[in-house]
């Protein structure tokens, strides 16, 4: 019982740190609100789908960045989609880097795009690791009896 | 936790029906679950053409959540087509486009309301509360 309480406290702390460090925003809380008894792993499933589905977008952007001359319209279109998905799971830092990338597309700044895309990928990978660790711990802790969520 | 009762949508199965039109799998999943939790029976299609086709098959919906950018047929074309077909469902544009020109173009296609993605429970409830029941 005590061990379980400890695990739940760790889960809560880990969750809070994801918000405090700016990795997640309010949209993640909205996802948590959609979790219920019939879909107890909804958030993890959405995040898993996001990483699976966005992998092709990341590959498309990488390929497009290898082409010369750069097609900024195409790059912006891909990044618009990627930003939308990232925003849907509450990926705050990923979303911010996506916005920066789109700004460089608008101004036709190829170097800026290439540089920022490295940042996008870094934040995308970091968020994945952090969420994987969070979900793993949450699974260990098991369901909570009361939900007291705040960002 | 969201429930249909706590948010004024009649339960256990609401008489309201909805169609999610979106090519993005993450958005599909979120909107589908959001509607389920609110007790709103819903179908999901992946582009505007499928939205038109499902109506041609005879199905009707009170609410359509329409994404803007989709392959095959986008949300603007699909909205125009559905209005031309005489579909009077509440069509809520849900898009991540944010320029006022793009938003205006989408609204002028025949939307009843427009919301930026991601759609929250509060936004969806505000749409549902103003809805006309046509199904």
UniProtKB/TrEMBL annotation, chain A:
Keyword Transmembrane helix included in the entry's annotation: no
Record-level GO BP terms: cytokinin-activated signaling pathway; phosphorelay signal transduction system
Residue ranges of domain HPt in the record: 39-134
Keywords: Cytokinin signaling pathway, Phosphoprotein, Two-component regulatory system
Keyword field contains Nucleotide-binding: no
Location in or out of the cell: Cytoplasm, Cytosol; Nucleus
One MF term in the entry's GO annotations: protein histidine kinase binding
Classification via InterPro entries: AHP1-5/YPD1 (IPR045871), HPT_dom_sf (IPR036641), Sig_transdc_His_kin_Hpt_dom (IPR008207)
Modified residues annotated as Phosphohistidine in this record: 80
GO cellular component, one term: cytosol
One Pfam family of this chain: Hpt
Function: Functions as a two-component phosphorelay mediators between cytokinin sensor histidine kinases and response regulators (B-type ARRs). Plays an important role in propagating cytokinin signal transduction.
Record remark: domains: Histidine-containing phosphotransfer domain (HPt) contains an active histidine that mediates the phosphotransfer.
Protein name: Histidine-containing phosphotransfer protein
Automatic annotation (TrEMBL), chain B:
Modification type 4-aspartylphosphate: residues: 67
Keywords: Phosphoprotein
Keyword hit for Repeat: no
Keyword GTP-binding recorded: no
BP term (GO), one: phosphorelay signal transduction system
Coiled coil start-end: none
Response regulatory domain sequence ranges: 17-132
Cited Pfam families: Response_reg
PANTHER family tied to this protein: TWO-COMPONENT RESPONSE REGULATOR, TWO-COMPONENT RESPONSE REGULATOR 24
Protein name: Two-component response regulator 24-like
Source organism (scientific name): Rhodamnia argentea
Record lineage: Eukaryota, Viridiplantae, Streptophyta, Embryophyta, Tracheophyta
Gene: LOC115754558
């Amino acid at each position: 019982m005590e061990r379980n309480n400890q695990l739940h406290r760790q889960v809560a702390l880990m969750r809070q740190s994801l918000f405090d460090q700016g990795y997640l925003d309010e949209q993640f809380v909205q996802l948590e609100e959609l979790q219920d008894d019939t879909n107890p792993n909804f958030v993890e499933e959405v995040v898993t789908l996001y990483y699976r589905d966005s992998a092709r977008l990341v590959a498309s952007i990488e390929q497009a960045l290898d082409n010369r001359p750069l097609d900024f319209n195409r790059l912006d279109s891909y990044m618009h989609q990627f930003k939308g998905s990232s925003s849907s799971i509450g990926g705050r830092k990923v979303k911010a880097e996506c916005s920066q990338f789109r700004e460089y597309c608008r101004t036709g700044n190829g170097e800026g795009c290439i540089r920022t895309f490295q940042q996008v990928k870094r934040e995308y990978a970091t968020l994945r690791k952090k969420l994987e660790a969070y979900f793993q711990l949450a699974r260990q802790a098991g369901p909570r009896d009361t939900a007291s969520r705040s960002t | 936790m969201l429930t249909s009762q706590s948010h004024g949508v009649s339960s256990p199965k609401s008489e309201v029906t909805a169609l999610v039109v979106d090519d993005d799998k993450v958005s599909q999943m979120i909107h589908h679950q959001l509607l389920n939790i609110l007790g709103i029976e819903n179908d999901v299609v992946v582009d505007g053409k499928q939205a038109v086709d499902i109506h041609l098959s005879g199905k009707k919906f009170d609410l359509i959540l329409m994404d803007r950018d989709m392959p095959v047929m986008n949300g603007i074309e699909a909205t125009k087509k559905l209005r031309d077909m005489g579909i009077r469902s509440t069509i809520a544009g849900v898009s991540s486009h944010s320029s006022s020109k793009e938003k205006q173009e989408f609204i002028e296609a025949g939307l009843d309301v427009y919301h930026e993605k991601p759609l929250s429970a509060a936004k969806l409830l505000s749409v549902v509360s103003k809805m006309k029941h046509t199904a």
